[in-house]
Design a protein that fits this description.
heterodimer, A: 115 residues, mainly beta, globular, B: 114 residues, six-stranded mixed β-sheet, five-stranded antiparallel β-sheet, 11 strands
Chain lengths: 115, 114
Amino acid sequence: DSGVTQTPKHLITATGQRVTLRCSPRSGDLSVYWYQQSLDQGLQFLIQYYNGEERAKGNILERFSAQQFPDLHSELNLSSLELGDSALYFCASSPLQGALQETRYFGPGTRLLVL
Amino acid sequence: KNQVEQSPQSLIILEGKNCTLQCNYTVSPFSNLRWYKQDTGRGPVSLTIMTFSENTKSNGRYTATLDADTKQSSLHITASQLSDSASYICVVRGGGSGTYKYIFGTGTRLKVLA
């Protein structure tokens, strides 16, 4: 158990809908990262937040957005969902800003299925 | 183009044997390289993190090497166990401060048989 929690575990929804995925980092960790893992694309980095502020951006679509709240939990919002958005969404956390040697701790993931 | 290629795509070995997984990258400028182990349906677990100046780093039975000149890394697993069956993912961080990016390899799927 990494100490990172994600809810829900599974989510089934329809195309065009909007969903929110939630992540609670390990106690004391200030950075939260979001990743998408699909069968055809592998793992992709979406976005990082550090202490409430956006720190780095990866391959995140404009239909997706995220935020980190004062209590450091984070939410990933996915809107206008398409079939291709079906994937495992992982959240990870690290103590600080994600320096070169800083370990990332991954949550168990949320499996999203868009029908 | 920034790329990370891993080989082999999949590997089957007998319990107790050693194996080596490869990661070649073209990411520039290079920042660091991480190896992760991912069990099916679960989140990745960090094995090693290596920066430009590091050649070798060990974590128990896992030993990673990095050759920054040839842009190659390897992950050596010694005395494999059934629990080593998983996907092993190489991730390279490139770019300067504030503009870095993460390039993921597609992984090597390892199966250890009794």
